[in-house]
Amino acid sequence: MKALLHFIVGFLILSPSLGELCNTEDKKVLLKIKKALHNPYHLVSWDPKTDCCTWYCVHCHDTTHRIDQLNIFSGDINGQIPPEVGDLPFLDYLVFRKLTNLTGTIPPTIAKLKNLVSLTLSWTDLSGPVPGFLSQLKNLDYLDLSFNKLSGTIPSSFSSFPKLRTLHLDRNKLTGSIPESFESFRGEVPDLFLSHNQLAGKLPVSLGKMQFRTIDLSWNRLQGDGSMLFNTQTMVIILSRNSFEFDLSKVKLPISLVWLDLSHNRIRGSLPAGLARLQLQFLNVSYNSLCGKIPDGEELGRFDSSSYFHNRCLCGAPLQPCKLK
């Protein structure tokens, strides 16, 4: 009996792969990815002699043991996103983030990842267009392509995601206008982050039909009317550093609003009285053409003059007192 036990123990020692949970095909793909990235020290734990479910930046499903998460971030990694990432069919979470030497374009093979729920390719040196083929990822809930060097226009197909709840395209070099297709999202209206690009033109009028909870269009070249973005569910509106022109006094502010930045535009009129009833965490209407008295209210009293200055004739605390007529 002891001899048999010694044989089994010795066999397991000599054959560690028998105790390995990682799928062999997934392991081969990961090793190809490592090679394509020039075998960086960041992935030193990716040793073919060990179980890939224990590797850094990798996660295996608890029951199937297939690779379901690949999270490569904050490392000294050079090269392009390896096309082999598309050969991990059970991925639902893919991240390449804070890799400033990651270059090239977004590979089409990512569209093969039909189970993908979250895709983050941000804070890299990726360039080229925002690829329309990403809209083939019908299970995508979160898409973050921010802080890159992506150029061109926003694909109109991005309104066809049936499950998307958050879309980050901010901090790129995108041009053109906001697609007309964004007037009708196939699924839930996502939180939309398009700031720090070179987007231009007027907003589609029917964009006002969309119940955006959060929308950030700041630091672009947009113009015209932006008042249609205020709706009953809006919580965050950031339109600063554009050329929007509308009468703020005619805007009905939703009670849900907690963050409002309209600074550095051409907005006219006066501040709505309803502003004082909101539970705002942030407010900035500076550098516009607003006039009239700042509404009284304890909530608005929390904001200093920098929230209001450089307007045409706004007055009242915390600015100069209004002149008596």
TrEMBL record:
Keyword set includes Cell inner membrane: no
Keywords: Leucine-rich repeat, Repeat, Signal
Signal peptide residues on this chain, from the entry's feature table: 1-19
PROSITE patterns linked: LRR
Ranges for domain Leucine-rich repeat-containing N-terminal plant-type: 24-60
Top-level taxonomic group: Eukaryota
Subcellular location: Cell envelope
InterPro entries per UniProt: Leu-rich_rpt, LRR_dom_sf, LRR_N_plant-typ, PGIP
Any matching Pfam family: LRR_1
Similarity-based family: Belongs to the polygalacturonase-inhibiting protein family.
Protein's UniProt name: Polygalacturonase-inhibiting protein
Origin species: Carica papaya (Papaya)
